[in-house]
Structure formats: structure tokens, C-alpha cells
TrEMBL record:
Residues 13-77 form the XdhC- CoxI domain. It holds the Pfam family XdhC_CoxI. This is Xanthine dehydrogenase accessory factor. InterPro entries: MoCofactor_Util/Proc (IPR052698), XdhC_CoxI (IPR003777), XdhC_Rossmann_dom (IPR027051). Residues 119-229 form the XdhC Rossmann domain.
Amino acid sequence: MTHTIGDRAGELLAGRVPFVHATVVRAQVPASARAGDDAIILADGSIEGFVGGQCTESSVRVAALGAMRDGESVLLRVLPEGSGEFPETPGARVVVNPCLSGGAMEIFLQPRLPRPLVHVVGQSPIAAALFDLGGPLGFDMRRADGAASGAPTALVLASHGGDEPAAIRAALDAGVGWIGLVASPRRGAGVLSELTLDEGERARISTPAGLDIGARTAAEIALSILAEIVQEVRSGRLAVGSTGAPERPLGERPVEAVDPVCGMTVVVGPDTPHLVVDGEDVWFCGPGCRDRYAAEQAGR
């Protein structure tokens, strides 16, 4: 990893911004990239660094956003159309890129996702159990002062009292995606009755917090709460990230289109080449396909 990319990765990790680190593992001449070249791909599809030309970037962008969404590393093999054999590597994802001028490539895509940040309010046995279990389960557990500062992934109110309506309202206004209130169904309903909630806000509040696993002890209740947060994150309903949260939730598929010239799948973004034909947007992998399509349309 180059010094510049390394510094940028450190900044993103410190800011809890998800990204994918792409590293060229192998490249055949005449590919423009070389083994060791690397780049960062952000959740909006932007690429910082170099892993090949524009056609290679299109394939990397699509695969990287999928890796970020799934949380799984991918070895991407990019082959030009009609290329000769490339040595097999178990577990590789193969993409035939019709626009590639030549030179097969292998690129390792590693998602770097922040740990879910959970703020906990209260000093109860359940709050203590949340801290005991949260760390080993991969959560970044921190104490809150009754309201969520910043925008953590989740907030758990385990104080069994206090000004819970105010804490919930503050968390909603701060953009917290999941708020768990530890309370009986009756008390939880009473707390929520003190709030004016729209449908979207109500959907972000869970009370009684936690999955119904028949929990009785403090540790079991804490386990059920963390399990519900895991469920929300894995389903894509809860984005992981705070001040640097992605513009698009990780579970949401990016907008994709098919280049009508080469047949490649491209991620639609502000810099994706496109034309407006008969009032419809047509997207392309690069300027070459766009210009060819434009010429064909002009000759009709």
C-alpha cells in the first residue's frame, strides 16, 4: 500500500467510514496497472488510487460495492474478451470485460468496515452485561450520558428510569438508526406515549429491546439485544458508520445499468459517461462506448 493510500485508509478508519481496499495481485502485459498498485473504493462508488484504466475500474467498482455490501473479501479476475487462459485461482470471481484492451488482471478486494458503535445508557446489570458481551461479539461499546452524542449505530437505554423520552428524542434527532428501550411492554408503551413519533421514527425504536429468545437473566437479555442489532445490520436495515456514514446504506444495492455497446454492467454515478436518447438516460462504461453509440445513433 502506498503512503498516500495508507494515510487515507487510516483517516477513513478513524472516521468510521466504510471502504474497500483494492490491491492488484497480478497483471499481464499490456495492462496499465502493476502488481502492488492499490486504491480505495468508497460507498458512493468513487475510487481513490489506481488499479487500472477506466474499463478495469468499472469492473472493480461493481465488485467492490458488492464486497462492501456483503462484508466478504473477493479475488476479482478481470479478463479481456477472447483472452487466453489465465492460471486458475480457487475462489476467484471472474469478469469478462469486453472493453479491456488486453492484459488479464487479478485484484484483491478487502472490505474495511467499522465495528458497529453502540452507546449504552445506564448502570444496570443489563448494561454491564452488554459491555461484557459486546466487545467479543465485534461491537464498539461506549457509555452515553443519557443522549446519543454524534450518531452511533445503535443506542440502548438500560437505565430502568430517568428521562427516557428525552433520550429517545435526542437519539432520533441525532440520526441514530436503532434505539432499544429495556422495559416491559407496558412501561415501554407508556414511555412512547409521551413522544410524538412519525412512522419512520417509530420503526427505529425497539421495546422491549431484543429478540424474543425467552431471556430471563441480565446476560440473556443483553444477548438478545445484541442479537437484534446484528440482525438489523446484517439485513441492511441499519447502516454502520457515524460521522462518516456512507451516503448509501451498505445493504442497499447501488444503481446499475448495462452498457448497450459492450454489455458491461456499470455503476451509475455522477461521473459515469451517459447520453440522453429519446428522453432516456443511457449509461456507458467509458467515453469510447459512449462516443461509438452516439455515432451509431447519428447515422440512423
